[in-house]
Each structure stands twice: as C-alpha cells, then as structure tokens.
Design brief:
214 residues, 7 strands, Maf protein, 6 helices, alpha/beta, seven-stranded mixed β-sheet
C-alpha cells in the first residue's frame, strides 16, 4: 500500500485521516514516521486554501513523499465569518491559555458561545470549513491540487462538556438534522460527516492515481 504523508502536528487530526484514507487504499504516515521535523511553517495565507498549499509544499519539499495538508476552521454567520482563517489563532498568542493545548481548545469554544449570547436560533448558522492540499510527484513533475468543503450546522447555546482535544469547534456546532453536537459523535461517525472527508472527495482522482502508482 502506498504511503501518504499527512502533514499535521495535531494527533486528533492524524487519527481522523487514518480513518478517512482507508477508502483510498493509502497508508497515512505521520511527520515523525517520515523523519520530518514537525516545526510548522508560518501560516501567512489569507485563505484556508493558501495555508493548506503552503504547508503541503513545505513538508513535501522535506520528505519527497506524496503529501496532504489542510487548513480549516469555523465560520459563524453572525460574527461576519469569524473566527475563519484565524480559527486556531483567534485569541492571540498572549492569551493565558495559548501555551496549553487543551486549555486553548476550551477557551476558543467558550469564546464562540460568549460572542453569540443573545443571538436568535435562526441567526446562529455556522460551518466548519476545510481546504485540503495535495502535492505529489508523477511523470517526472510535481503536481498540486486543492479542494475545499464545509460541514453546515448551527452554534449551540453552550459548550459540549466532553470536548475532544484538537477539535474545539466540534464542541459548539450542532447538526440540524439530528440536533446533536458534532462532538457527541464517535470518531467513525464524525469522520463520515467530516468537512475533511468532503474535501478529500474532491481529490479522489489524484489520490487514486497515487494509490495505483508503481
């Protein structure tokens, strides 16, 4: 089975990709598996797609392996699309929780709920967005492709208490069709609905090409 470097330093995201890539018959490997320093490049892009491609190029250049990277976050209509491309940096580097991953996750979720206080149910629309960028070598040249997708929902009135580390916004997004928090779902259930799964579907031809390469 062909290897695909999943360029993330988020263990929860890596676990999700292990589930998602089964259907493509690709073996996801981590940065440490590939012997690549996990120091991430600065995310200077103005969009999720720009940041995803920036990261994919960066790690592909270091590993020379087919590489996928993504960028994404929560976009809330009533907040003008925030936190948006700054989803993981929304509170700033000087926030008291910035140095502790779990504390920062909870702080991000709680800030969404705080800012949405008093907003009517029919105005609480939001979505988790993702851009997945794939960089690989074939036919003697480097190929790049980016796919974007989103999972629609509404912002809850309180944070789901059993937050999964690495996925703060799943603890605030309700799924209208079921009335459940995304964070309530099992890993398998969440992966099937995931914005990352939808983004990968847009890369199917390229992923199948990598899987079938000799």
């Amino acid at each position: 089975m062909k290897s695909l470097l999943v360029a993330t330093t988020n263990p929860a995201k890596l676990d999700e990709y292990r589930l998602l890539l089964r259907e493509y018959e690709l073996a996801p490997i981590s940065l440490s598996d590939a012997g690549v320093d996990g120091h991430a490049p600065e995310e200077t892009g103005a969009t999720f797609s720009e940041n995803a491609l920036l990261k994919a190029r960066y790690y592909f250049a270091r590993a020379d392996l087919p590489t996928i990277a993504d960028d994404g976050g929560l976009a809330v209509d009533a907040l003008g699309g925030e936190p948006g491309v700054r989803s993981h940096r929304w509170l700033g580097e000087r926030h008291p929780a910035a140095g502790a991953h779990g504390d920062l996750d909870r702080a991000l979720a709680e800030e969404v709920i705080r800012r949405m206080a008093g907003v009517a149910r029919d105005q609480r629309g939001a979505r988790l967005r993702a851009a997945a960028a794939l960089v690989y070598r074939a036919d003697g040249r480097i190929h790049e492709r980016v796919s974007e997708a989103a999972l629609e929902g509404v912002v809850a009135e309180r944070v789901w208490p059993n937050m999964r580390p690495g996925f703060p916004y799943r603890a605030v997004l309700l799924l209208p069709q079921s009335g459940r928090y995304l964070g309530e779902l099992s890993d398998e259930e969440a992966a099937q609905l995931s914005q990352r799964r939808l983004a990968l579907a847009g890369l199917r031809a390229e992923l199948e090409r990598i899987a079938g390469a000799r």
